[in-house]
């Protein structure tokens, strides 16, 4: 297994390199990522290349036996480039040109930039494609991060128009599908179509969704261009990856991943400006997204947080145990390599307060020791753990286009996409039920339950898959606002939930958006929900059943008789519909029963204690992860004798897991 | 009486038209507004006109016996127009050009746009001026809505300079009246005068007020141009109107109304982003503004909300009863026609979530039934009700220039113009006392009481009217910050309340702005206020009396002896001054006594129950409107036998009015 | 002593001048500041000068015996100037050009503007340099106020590049010191360096700090240019000053002051938008900054608030007593002249709601009477009081560059520079301990205690001074985040507190930024802190001691053993380190003991009662200032017989000081 660090040799005097490499060796790492912001060093002026520094750095790393991952440096076009080709700079939605002075200051739609990128990547690939120490490549860095996903300049507008022409072929088709007859927006020439710069009200949602698709696809093309250059010059043994962020950008990771050998992920459970880490479920969801991006294939964590992070604002300082905990969580959920960001905190530049394994003074202290503990504990064990399977009987549907559609029309000030997604994901996570996050390219019959949260923008193809799946005995869980839109971001003309109404056995003749100071009240009426009640946030679907059974209703003087949660038999299968943003406890209760009926494993543990199973042919692996910063918790181990590789200890029955404790237990089959 | 719908035939396939028209017929409507966003259909390229779609639509509507109102489509200049004449686009106060992509993306100051508008309106007028189904015209749509009232581009600057030259004739006069000697702003050429783009501090308030006047007047000229074109081609029987919004824009509805046959209003008691409807008094105030715009003349509600509204954020879903209640309220206060917005929710475009009588699925449900109930209940009765008089013994003064002056200098973060206006309007509304909202062009002697709230920007002419009125026995109620400014937005050099000090019998030597976390405490000292106390928000005038009596004082360790509310005899009349933002209950108590003394009818009803009287020569009409969403209320009917036309039921004595109930009762004289 | 008013003769009709001057005479003032916004009057068109109005005004003032201070009018370039030279307008960090229409609408980097400024100042100096009434000059007005300190246009960028070239000489040096290797920012031509316009993330902190230095220095050069012009034409007896604001702008008052005879200050303890005055300590800190700007030299208050202030929002109305109190506070802390802003409130322009001694109606009332009381009370006494010494045994360090560095990286949303500075200043102020605010150009041995709060950006030179000072017996108090940065805004590579670690006797291996909803808990462990506890905000340094003693520790399940406050013996002296943003009470307790040990006078008074001592050879002056708006307080006078000059009363033992009372007591030595 690869465990390594992100290192910036260019930021330190050469006399320090030996110290650092020596300390890394002692720490036990085996891989180093470098060079992803090194363009001005490699090409100090246009067309002049100088790889001296990286030659030397790689040579020394190689001499220590480290493998090297190289980043292409296109996230940071140098000053000379911007001075000479200022048209490369992106433009925001008010028309402000983004200045040189930080990073990601290019629009992917600039042809000049594409050419310049191609040249530097070609030179790098030629230089290091045959180097024995170089095992792979990271293309660029965190595409789209920090609002760099969308650019609104003239270059972008022209590219958008071309992209639309490719997609729709005729303006008639575009006008028809966008409904431009609304507000006299009919386009009679491609050149009339705007990028969504500032308007008095709001743009056409169909244009906005296509603009997001365009932005995502242009990044994919840009990435593909770099990948193709690399493939021309590098051998098979060198991999190509990119380090994704999953923050709702106009990026389509799954499409981009098709061009990559595997994907990578930058894992920051807390960052500048956050007073506390995000929830265990929120971290887990990101790992599940990673694992799902190439349909179950393992991925690298190319940046794993190793200290407090921040630019001008600094976030929470991870407590002792956090680094190991988050590393174990990552591996248990599919990461095959961990690269810590960063070896040592930078003394200058915007990221001065991104703390690393070492702080500014370069002295090993508790974070160094903790990473050492991780490495030691995994020694001789990691490979088999990684090789084992992550099995999931449940699937959660996620499509970035649906997320974009929600961003375009959030309905309520209470609505945040990730929060709402987690409303339906977290209860399953808290039951330690393993799930994959999928799109519409998987065989649903693999799964016993498919949860399709806030499925607002629908795809006919997936609707049909769901219908078949349920007809053949599957179980589907939908939530409020299912079935509203077609792929053009146009509202269905069928009664909601539209194309999915029949399988749900319901109609939604009325609904309501609830703002931050509003909530509904929902009472369970049948089955496991009987006697339970919950507030409902964000949205109320006031449901009438056609064939479904009512599981919960609204307590409301006007909508007293309307259903809030229903269950329908459809073909051989079952469909649930949760029409209100009810509380976690109610959803968890419902899931308990759904999972039980469907034969899905779930297990209650104390809040914040996460269990993750892996299976090999002869062993079961159980990661026990206590995310609680303050309290130890007792859990009941599944039957059998469990041993911990790193200590040799054996456990059965009850196990006390200390605060922020993390362990991997193994049981023979 | 006209009751109809806003319909967009261009947004639906022709095969649906028949279904829709059939359903409308069954519903019982008699008028349809169309075409106000149809420019790109009518003029698909510059100078080429095609009225096929609207020809066909009007023909079919006519065949069903519907009358048609046509909107001129200038709120939505087409894409080809903006591509060819980008100078038409407006500019915001930071210099950002507003993009094509929504609506109202033109500056009224563009001469090119004026010409292009003239041409399309000419063509429409020629086409439909003689059509038997067409009964009238709506010019453009909601002028100034969504910040489109003010544009800050170079074209606008030149027009502003010309407008100023017309107004002031000489720069000396402008310099003198604006006080440009302050901060060396003296202008020596007209071309030096800026539009109020971003500055480090704040612009000269006199310039700002004139800029608002300019913006309003340029819209009036633009509207007049369209009206003149229409009048050239249409017959007398076709009316011309415009659908106003009353949201504090730089618009002067009363001036514009002089060019219109009657005004129209778009009535949205709740919209996207509001968790609840605005208060009954706030809706009533807007109707009173409408009725006052042409000094009592009836108006159309050209858009009456018929479902939850919103763009990317959706508002409160009106409860069963709301549509009828708001319709009855509108008619009782002066609306002569109701056109529901919109027949059916659009499937595409920005307004996807503007719900209508029908939702996206086009099926009649409770909103359809409710509108039907409205129409049935008014059948054979509406005309006489509408023909009856709205009588008012009380007048409230409102001048948009005063509102603009407050927007320019709100004094406190607690101050919002409408909220403060309602502070003085709502207590009268809650006493069911009928009032007109007037400007300075009415004979005050018609009224027993004139309330002049937050009269900051004064007009000499109105001051003189007030003095005469009181001298002759009238009663006037002023509030804090009366008499501060002259028409140039310059502070008086008389002791406050300036020109009105003598009639108030007071001086205001000290005052204080109260921010959101500050309040005063006011104790009643005499008359009906004795024993009452109230917190005071927003502002404290620390009053010294000259001839007035003190009705209330401050409880304050420093201003203990200062008056907060006073009463003065002036000539034959009486003047009240309320120097603090006291609570509704105290003002209501004071009004009770003022109205009683002045012989004005008032009646207490449960909170949220509104009564509106109308009178004909032989009958009295009483609208009983329960705005309470949750509770029924008992009211005591005025003496006599009251009957309800729609049911034939008779009532006397006590009446239980259900939640959201609305009824019109009639009594023979 | 000079006591006067700010007057704008140009804003009033000449017939009013006599009334005003007569009233001023009766009030007892002796100096008037005029003309600082009079450019368009003096130069109504380019190159044409007309001093008629000011000639006449000065003549009349002279005839009344008033001395006159003239402002150069460059804060308000006239309309003709901007029309002809629009390149003079500044640009904000998004690229928006700041419009004409308010004030300070110039970039100091415009060479055209420098020339035009030079010309008007030359003409003024020639005109009034010999006038007997003119005693001095104020250059421009409030440099940098309201964000006018930083301009981001092309002119500014070129100037910034030149300035950097002067500073660094070679790009290699700049690249090295800024660490531009980070994110490929290496500059290969000076013309590549940006001004810090909008980027996706954040600019390099080293660039940002140099940009602030550049902005400050360019203002200093601009000021020096004006001073040099003046010196050429005016006699020695006329002083030159500038009225500073101390609000964290990119301004270096101390550097600028070197070119001035003395500095001036605009003293607004409350202004538009504030519901209450800032705290007594916050006002005192500003006076201490003033006094420190020229190392103890007295200064003028060129604008002393005399009424409620505000532009479109109006602030708190000062209560009776406030004017005298704030005047006495100013004089006691170093002001040698008081000029009240403004004689009378303006009727027009942006500052209509800046109230003065007179309000808009021009009638003398309580504020006039209160100023008269001030003048009478000081009559025949002020000069000796002013001539006496302000003695301070304690020094507080302040460097604007440190403040800028904090603005660039505030670490936490809880952090505001002034609030945090006051966290360490206010406890000393509340103990009535007199302190000077110093930079690194003073002999520290004058002081018994030196407090160095939030010393983030360090200077080697000052570090060395501190070390010497403590070695020789001095006492230093540091706070959290000491020693982090070098002068290039680069993080030290030593363990914190870096260069100061040895003298502190500690190391800070871990720390944490606390956001608004986070706090630590600190328990006193030794000395006066034993038994005390406090919450800690903003920041926690988790301290390990090397040679220091622990005074307080964290109550925290993870950092239980870490120190929060320490004390170290170093050489002959003592160093305290306060590693957490603890509460005022804990710091006051600690100071009590530190001051006692160091032999510094302190005395407890009721909260909000401030004592300020002055000393002459034979007398002690004690200003007693009760800032409490509601309550009188009893204080114990220092031993001896104290007399009040204005009343002739004598006091000893206990003294009752009424709310907002202020008095100066004198005791013979």
Automatic annotation (TrEMBL), chains A, B, C:
Family matches, as InterPro entries: Beta_galactosidase_Trimer (IPR013738), Class_I_gatase-like (IPR029062), GH (IPR017853), Glyco_hydro_42 (IPR003476), Glyco_hydro_42_N (IPR013529), Glyco_hydro_b (IPR013780)
A biological process from GO: carbohydrate metabolic process
A GO CC term attached to the entry: beta-galactosidase complex
SUPFAM superfamilies named among the record's database cross-references: (Trans)glycosidases, Class I glutamine amidotransferase-like
Signal peptide range in chain numbering: none
Entry superkingdom: Bacteria
EC number: 3.2.1.23
Catalysed reaction, written as an equation: Hydrolysis of terminal non-reducing beta-D-galactose residues in beta-D-galactosides
Residue ranges constituting the Beta-galactosidase trimerisation domain according to the UniProt record: 392-600
Residues noted as binding substrate in the record, renumbered to the chain: 103, 141, 311
Domain Glycoside hydrolase family 42 N-terminal per the UniProt entry, residue ranges: 6-379
Active site as annotated: 142, 303
GO molecular function: beta-galactosidase activity; metal ion binding
Keyword Membrane listed: no
Keyword vocabulary terms for this entry: Glycosidase, Hydrolase, Metal-binding, Zinc
Pfam family for this entry, one: Glyco_hydro_42
Family named by the database record: Belongs to the glycosyl hydrolase 42 family.
Protein name: Beta-galactosidase
Organism: Salipaludibacillus keqinensis
